[in-house]
Amino acid sequence: DAGITQSPRHKVTETGTPVTLRCHQTENHRYMYWYRQDPGHGLRLIHYSYGVKDTDKGEVSDGYSVSRSKTEDFLLTLESATSSQTSVYFCAIREDVGRATDTQYFGPGTRLTVL
Amino acid sequence: QKEVEQDPGPLSVPEGAIVSLNCTYSNSAFQYFMWYRQYSRKGPELLMYTYSSGNKEDGRFTAQVDKSSKYISLFIRDSQPSDSATYLCAMSRTNAGKSTFGDGTTLTVKP
């Protein structure tokens, strides 16, 4: 168990409302990621972080922002939710550099529905 | 065109069959290759990883990477009903994350 939790696990909201998803890790790793998973699109990277207050965009970052004020927490915010953001959101962590691998460990996911 | 293409499936096989799952890619800079398994309504979990070309075996699972053909495969021997899941290939240029994932192949192993 990689020690990753996500909250909430399920959320239904209305178009135009702000939504914040939380990812919490107990492993003290530097790298954290937010993905969304949709049928026909697989896992797509939204934003990632390589340290406290160090974040960068992924391939589908429009409409999303992130913050990381502590090593253990990575927040994903939808400023004004739209129906196209209905998806399953996964947080992931990566073990720190030094291994010949690029593997990630995923949280249980948050199922978000925007009506 | 996507950087990573995965055989779409779904795939249904009888218990005990050998399963082959495949991905092709277009970015020759990819060096790290991973296979994840995802059970229904769960997060993906790492199954196998390979750096550069070659084969890697772990129990009933074998991962193959052919960089000259830009082709990777995952073989499952003596498949079991517990192997029923969606399998995702992933690959990256560096070991700093930002993997590119295939869309996944859903496998059902029937008793």
Rough shape of chain B?
Answer: globular
User: How many strands, which pairing sense, and closed or not: the largest β-sheet of chain B?
Assistant: 6 strands, mixed
Helix fraction of chain B, binned, reads under 10%
| % residues in beta strands of chain B | over 45%
Tally of helical runs of chain A: 0
How would you describe this protein?
The complex is a heterodimer of chains A (115) and B (111). Chain A is mainly β and 115 residues long. Chain A has strands at residues 4-7, 10-13, 19-25, 31-38, 42-51, 54-57, 64-70, 73-78, 87-94, 104-106, 110-114. In chain A, strands 2, 4, 5, 6, 9, 10 and 11 form a 7-stranded mixed sheet that branches. A 4-stranded antiparallel sheet of chain A has the order 1-3-8-7, with no helix packed on it. The radius of gyration of chain A is 13 Å and the shape is globular. The termini of chain A are far apart. Chain B starts with a strand and ends with a strand. Chain B is globular, with a radius of gyration of 13 Å. Helix content of chain B is 0%, strand content 55%. Chain B has no helices and 11 strands. In chain B, the strands form 2 sheets. In chain B, strands 2, 4, 5, 9, 10 and 11 form a 6-stranded mixed sheet that branches. A 5-stranded antiparallel sheet of chain B has the order 1-3-8-7-6, with no helix packed on it. The chains are: A mainly beta (115), B mainly beta (111).
Summarize the structure.
The complex is a heterodimer of chains A (115) and B (111). Chain A has 115 residues and is mostly beta strands. Chain A has strands spanning 4-7, 10-13, 19-25, 31-38, 42-51, 54-57, 64-70, 73-78, 87-94, 104-106, 110-114.
